[in-house]
Specification:
Blueprint lengths: L1 E3 L5 H17 L4 E8 L2 E9 L12 E2 L4 H14 L23 H5 L25 H5 L16 H15 L3 H13 L16 E3 L6 E3 L9 H4 L2 E2 L1 H13 L7 H8 L12 E3 L4 E5 L2 E10 L2 E8 L4 E7 L7 H15 L17 H6 L1 E5 L2 E7 L5 E5 L7 E5 L5 E3 L8 E6 L5 E6 L2 E3 L23
Antiparallel strand pairs: 1-3, 2-3, 2-12, 4-7, 5-6, 8-9, 9-10, 10-11, 11-12, 13-14, 14-15, 15-16, 16-17, 17-18, 18-19, 19-20
Helix pairs in contact: 1-10, 2-5, 2-6, 8-9
């Protein structure tokens, strides 16, 4: 058994270790490692093992399966940010002759391309990559199950296509690009395509007896971008910090936030979660978690990040099935969030350069019909428009260089908010995507579409 407490309270650390111990025992895993990241730093790790005195630690490698897909997605987003491709480009524009060229890059990233979930032929995770030397062997004769863009359908071959796209545009192997562009900048030197000691061995535990069987460890070949990697809790902690905040050496905060946004319609029965651009999204315990699960014969893994709480939970086990590491990682986040809630940032006034009398004069109540809204200043001369009571459409707006603001979230995302002035320069009203906001409800005059009854407000 190994633990490290650091900044967490002893009671919190004990609860985390208890959760890991229960998961290893009830899940009948040879070993299980859990870890917690808070505000970008690894603050706790703990493990349990079936062999006394030989428990793994945060530097022990486990195979992480489909968490690999997040790394591949980051490489694709880097190409987008460099202008080498657009997310709505059809694959055929950059990677010729696949037989699936009509699917867009965004659809591949979000598993909404309509492609099959698995490759044809032998179980690819447990068979030699020599059986699939070409993309045609990965996709088969009928790569599509449904029309692209309709709904989420998880596809391992789709990420093989994305890995091949990276290789085509970079002119180098996927593994080399990954190391140079993500692993080295983030200091993830214990994340590799092949296992490097110390690493866990993969095991299958018999479902009806307490006996084990070693699992083979195959090189995935062309399927590597979908699930090849080995990593550690400590390295995944660094990656979790990146997924929460971005890193200009790899991918900026805005692009990482774009990856975290829902990008495909969930499949039937999957409404508790969604999928972004390479990231799974989950609502659990009243919070949004982003990250990914992973599995390959002998291993299960999960990384969940709560950006709002500044927390991430990691769970790694060397068993084909049994321990529910997705629930474990989510519970590690919950335990810390509830026991040691994040302290809010101190209130501070806006910088003087971001405030002037004209902006201040726009703040306060505005009315869309009879709905009351409040406009307040945000950072960098942005504004927030929110209902003053009851339900309504709340949105943040970013200032535009030529005046006005653009919506950043919710119903008004991408819509333009602007100030409309009278001939004398005074403010008449606010226009938000054709909606008129006036200082008084149904203010008399020619501003409100359809006009206002000249008799004005009246009683019964």
């Amino acid at each position: 058994m190994t633990t490290s407490f650091e900044a967490l309270l002893p009671g919190t650390a004990r609860a985390l270790l208890h959760r890991v111990a229960v998961a290893q025992s009830e899940g009948r895993a040879p070993s299980l490692v859990g870890a917690v990241v808070r505000d970008g730093a690894l603050v706790w790790s703990g493990s349990r093992s079936c062999v006394d005195g030989h428990a793994p630690d945060a530097d022990t490698q486990f195979r992480i399966g489909s968490i690999t897909k997040v790394f591949t997605a980051v490489l694709v987003m880097r190409l987008r940010d460099e202008g080498a491709l657009r997310l709505d480009d059809p694959l055929e524009l950059h990677l010729k002759g696949t037989g699936a060229g009509e699917v867009t890059i965004a659809q591949l990233l979000s598993h909404s391309g309509g492609l099959t979930a698995e490759t044809p032929g032998a179980w690819w995770e447990r068979s030699s990559a020599a059986l699939r030397p070409e993309l045609s062997d990965v996709l088969g004769e009928r790569p599509f199950l449904q029309a692209p863009g309709r709904r989420h359908h998880y596809s391992n071959p789709g990420y093989t296509l994305l890995g091949s796209l990276v290789e085509e545009l970079r002119g180098r192997p996927w593994e080399e690009v990954l190391r140079r562009e993500i692993l080295e900048p983030l200091g993830m030197d214990r994340t590799t395509a092949d296992p490097v000691a110390p690493h866990a061995g993969g095991w299958a535990v018999h479902p009806w007896a307490d006996v084990m069987l070693p699992e083979p460890s195959e090189d995935l070949g062309l399927m590597a971008p979908a699930g090849q990697l080995w990593s550690t809790a400590a390295d995944l902690a660094r990656f979790a910090a990146f997924l929460a905040e971005g890193d200009e050496r790899v991918l900026g905060a805005a692009s990482v936030a774009e990856m975290r946004a829902p990008a495909s319609v969930p499949g039937e029965g999957e409404w508790e979660g969604s999928y972004g651009l390479g990231l799974q999204l989950l609502r659990r315990d009243g919070r949004t978690l982003i990250g990914h699960t992973g599995s390959l014969p002998g291993f299960v893994a999960c990384l969940w990040v709560s950006v709002e709480d500044g927390l991430a939970g990691i769970a790694l086990a060397n068993a084909t099935s049994g321990p529910l590491v997705g629930a474990v990682a989510a519970d590690l986040v919950r335990i810390v969030a509830e026991a040691e809630p994040r302290l809010p940032e101190p209130w501070r006034p806006l910088p003087a350069a971001e405030v002037d009398a004209e902006l201040l004069s726009l703040t306060g109540p505005w009315y869309w019909g009879t709905y009351a809204y409040g406009l307040r200043l945000g950072p960098e001369r942005g504004v927030v428009l929110e209902p003053l009571k009851g339900a309504g459409r709340r949105a943040r707006f970013r200032a535009l260089p030529d005046g006005g603001w653009v919506g950043l979230n919710g119903y008004y995302e991408g819509e333009t908010l602007r100030v409309v002035r009278r001939p004398d320069g005074s403010v008449s009203h606010l226009d938000l995507g054709s909606f008129v906001f006036t200082r008084e409800p149904y203010e008399p005059g020619e501003v409100v579409p359809g006009g206002v009854d000249e008799a004005g407000w009246r009683g019964l």
